[in-house]
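Lab notebook, bench 4. Still working through the backlog of constructs that have no structural model yet. Next entry is a single chain of 70 residues. Request: give me the structure tokens for it.
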Amino acid sequence: MAYLNPAAGAARQGKQTAAVVNAVAATAIAAAGSTPTKAEYDALLADVNALRTKLNALLAAMRTSGQLAP
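Model written out:
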């Protein structure tokens, strides 16, 4: 959808960002006791790292399409 740029007085065409697939389902579960086990912590860490990777891919796609400053 085009919009009017009042400062320049010219119409600009928006660009579409490249597709980034959805994040997979979380693998971490609630801790069984008051202190998480190493396995519970590692599962949460893996989920956070996967989401970080997805977020970085989305930001890179937005920069490539010009929707976000480099």
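Notes after review: The chain is about 40% helix and 10% strand. Strands lie at 2-5, 10-13. Flag for follow-up if needed.
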